[in-house]
Amino acid sequence: GEREFGEKRGEMDARTGVWQLKKLVVSYCTHSGSSRGAKAFVENRLPKFQQRYPHLEVEAKIRSGHHPHLEGFYRNGVNKPIGVKNESAQDVWKRAAFLAEQWGGKHSTSQQGHRVRTQSQTVQGMWTPFTN
């Protein structure tokens, strides 16, 4: 059936109605142990992933002797690599989905920690080239 707009978080940019991730590259090595999960993702889960994100161009690249990684290419020109060394096929799926559902902005990952604000002014003052 027809889904309500915005029912699924991150499916498309609510501002433009356009998916932001346009291409996902999965790079892995066929014989390296650290690539086992990425290789299993490509061999067993990639067709289902492409059904889930039909707008997305997905490319699998074999890079012998290199650790596996995903790289997302966004409409705004930003690209984001994520290492998936020694991760399971399920974890590779989660990371690929994370990239697929990002806006592609510079700070689209959630910020860790809290900003610290203080009432007291700094004694140090502003630095100038003539400070010392």
Automatic annotation (TrEMBL):
Q: What is its main location?
A: mitochondrion
Coiled-coil region: none
InterPro entries linked to this entry:
Ribosomal_mL43 (IPR039927), Ribosomal_mL43/mS25/NADH_DH (IPR007741), Thioredoxin-like_sf (IPR036249)
**Cellular localisation:** Mitochondrion
Keywords attached to this Swiss-Prot or TrEMBL record, sorted alphabetically, are: Mitochondrion, Ribonucleoprotein, Ribosomal protein
In terms of superkingdom, the source organism counts as Eukaryota
Q: Which GO terms describe its molecular function?
A: structural constituent of ribosome
Spell out the GO cellular component terms annotated for this protein, sorted alphabetically and separated by semicolons.
mitochondrial large ribosomal subunit
- On whether Ribosomal protein is a keyword of this UniProt record, the answer is yes
Cite the Ribosomal protein/NADH dehydrogenase domain residue spans from the record.
Answer: 30-103
SUPFAM superfamilies in the cross-refs: Thioredoxin-like
One GO term (biological process): mitochondrial translation
Q: Which family does it belong to?
A: Belongs to the mitochondrion-specific ribosomal protein mL43 family.
Q: What is this protein called?
A: Large ribosomal subunit protein mL43
Q: Which organism is it from?
A: Hemiselmis tepida
